[in-house]
Amino acid sequence: MSSTSQKHKDFVAEPMGEKPVGALAGIGDALGGRLEEKGFDKAYVVLGQFLVLKKDEELFRDWLKDTCRANVKQQGDCYGCLKEWCDAFL
Amino acid sequence: MSLFPEDPANLSISRLKLDLVAHNVALPPAKSKKEVYVELHLKHIKQKNAADFSSDEEDQVQYVADEEEAEMPDPSGLTDDDLMAALLKHGVKAGPIVDSTRALYEKKLRKLLQSDGHGCLNGVEQGVLYSDSEDEDEQEYEESGSEEEETHEQPDQAQGGSSQLSQEPVKDTFRDLLPNTNSTPTGIYVTRRRAIKGAAGRPVQYPDTPASPTTLERREVERRLVPVQIQILVFLIVVCLLYLIYVCVQDDSFTFVALLDSLNQGTDSEEGLSLQAETRDAPALSGLE
């Protein structure tokens, strides 16, 4: 799993502030670009979607797949990253 | 309808008049030219026909949609509240249904409906589903909705588990009775064929011959693993006892030690004997192993 990736650690370590969407674990340049095109330019916008789906893993994964064609690993990374951030800061 | 493809210009004036009257179109003043009639015909009846036709189509489409809805309500046609209620019927507590989440919940409901459809074994449950689409039964269905969910799921579980359930007890009894044999449908138990040792020039092998010295060592270590701990415990106890005895013997200055000594003197010999026995036991044990 990605729970040990540096990006994940960096994101989970502090409040997200105004970090761009690309700071999320599992969201690289390509997915970040697609998300920005759809208006999800900041990490907190994705967090909003994550929260409005009630932190449901399945729904969030589906949404990420539909929105930016994220693969299963990217979905899992992003979900885990937001989940842990919420557990720490929400 | 059949008139529609015909050009009104080809119709007789009387026919045009009839058509116009039939369509509640005010007739032009009498003795008007045919063109006036044709124009009116084109203006009113053709439009009406077209409208009628399209509305007919819509009706058909709606009818088809209704049929589909009876079988599987289309999530995209539901309002937000209905969608949420439908999801709740399937045991899903939906979050807020807004623009950004609606598509996901629709997809989820579709998936749930599909899985339900596959879960049906026969038409009986579908009949229930049909009736639930009627408004009058909606309340009733909502009440029995959760129960029905369970009945939907139970057959699946029963199906999945039935083969295991039917097999497991049988296996257990067989294994209890004959632990070393595999159960066979005929009830005849077959043992593995063994090579004939010593025949056809094969060397005679004894079953207890070790495979290799390393495995022997490993086995020995494994066999000793638990006893070694006990041995250490016994050793520590012995050491403690010896130390106590040593201290008691050394320190004559304390009076209670002298008392202990007097007590110990009686037990010392016994302890010494038991110690000797223990020290004898340990090598004997290791020797046995």
Automatic annotation (TrEMBL), chain A:
Keywords: Chromosome, Cytoplasm, DNA-binding, Nucleus. It comes from the Eukaryota. This is Barrier-to-autointegration factor. GO terms for biological process: chromosome organization. Its main location: nucleus. Belongs to the BAF family. GO terms for cellular component: condensed chromosome; cytoplasm; nuclear envelope. It comes from Zoarces viviparus. GO terms for molecular function: DNA binding. InterPro entries: BAF, BAF_prot, BAF_sf. It is found in: Chromosome; Cytoplasm; Nucleus envelope. The keyword Ligase does not apply. It holds the Pfam family SAM_BAF.
TrEMBL record, chain B:
Keywords: Acetylation, DNA-binding, Membrane, Methylation, Phosphoprotein, Transmembrane, Transmembrane helix. Coiled coil: none annotated. Residues 129-168, 270-289 are annotated as: Disordered. The chain crosses the membrane at residues 225-246. Belongs to the LEM family. Residues 72-116 form the LEM domain. Residues 156-167 have a biased composition (Polar residues). One of its GO terms (cellular component) is nuclear envelope. InterPro entries: LEM-like_dom (IPR013146), LEM/LEM-like_dom_sf (IPR011015), LEM_dom (IPR003887), LEM_domain (IPR051656). This is LEM domain-containing protein. The lineage of its organism: Eukaryota, Metazoa, Chordata, Craniata, Vertebrata. Residues 132-151 have a biased composition (Acidic residues). One of its GO terms (molecular function) is DNA binding.
